[in-house]
Amino acid sequence: MCWSATADLVAGTAIAAVGAVCVARTVRARRPRDLPLAALPLAALPLLLGSHQIVESVLWRSGGGTGPATLAWAVIALPVLALWVPAGVLCAAPRRARGRLLIPLAAGAVTAAGLAYALATRTVTAEIRGHTVGYALGLPYAGLLVAGYLLATVGSLLLSADRGIVLLGALVAAGAAVCVALWRWEFISTWCAFAAVCSVTLLWWTGRGADQQVRRRPPRDRQPSGPGTPEG
């Protein structure tokens, strides 16, 4: 991804499809009384990030600039992810980890507010730079906002205390370091693409959760109902 319009479109579609599977698994794995509205936002992250890459494919074809695709991409990449990720992790994480996850959630809320204000009052511009896309917004207090953004997104994943989510956090953190080192001016675009690819890890995470839920159900709950099913 971040190579061409076609690459973004194909990869974004594939990742969005993975997200749809993650959501379906999360819903199907639990009985109605156990349905955790909690796990759905995090399970839907690949769906959001895949759609995000599809938006960027439109931006590629328009040649960058300041059009609706640029604004839509920036809204998802900046304020939406800054709040979505820590909120989703908080809801899906084990109870023992929820106290410490309030810190990245608070950082995400403050950062999302600052980024939303910047997008509402300034013009974001996209520029095609070879096989990457650079975005310019002229953020005030850029260092603080970037620190808050990384604490909210990467930090919440690493602090989740769930093996699958921590693995995703480690992969995304490594991707952030690589993107800063190699594509400093295109960091936000390349990092979001890397995060989208890494979010496929949630396919394994939701599958593991579904298996655990099935194993926890009493034997009777796993027996098909019907005329030949004995009643206790």
Total strands: the figure is 2
In the predicted model, the low-confidence regions spanning at least 5 consecutive residues are 31-35, 225-232
Task: Give Rg in angstroms.
Answer: 20 Å
Total helix count? 10
In helices, the fraction of residues equals over 70%
Largest sheet: 2 strands, antiparallel
| SSE topology string | HHHHHEEHHHHH
Q: Whole-number average pLDDT? A: 84
User: β content, as a range?
Assistant: under 5%
The N- to C-terminal Cα distance equals 56 Å
Strand order of the largest sheet: 1-2
Please identify the structural class as seen in this structure: mainly alpha
Q: Given the C-alpha coordinates, what overall shape results?
A: globular
Q: Can you characterise this structure?
A:
- The protein has 232 residues and is mainly alpha-helical.
- It contains ten helices and two strands.
- The C terminus is likely disordered.
Describe the secondary-structure layout:
Elements (H helix, E strand, L loop, with lengths): L4 H24 L10 H5 L1 H18 L5 H25 L5 H24 L3 E5 L2 E5 L5 H17 L4 H20 L4 H12 L2 H16 L2 H4 L10
Antiparallel strand pairs: 1-2
Helix pairs in contact: 1-3, 1-9, 3-4, 3-8, 4-5, 4-6, 5-6, 6-7, 7-8, 7-9
Give a brief rundown of this model.
This protein is mostly helical. It contains ten helices and two strands.
What tags apply to this protein structure?
single chain; 232 residues; mainly alpha; two-stranded antiparallel ribbon; 2 strands; 4% strand; globular
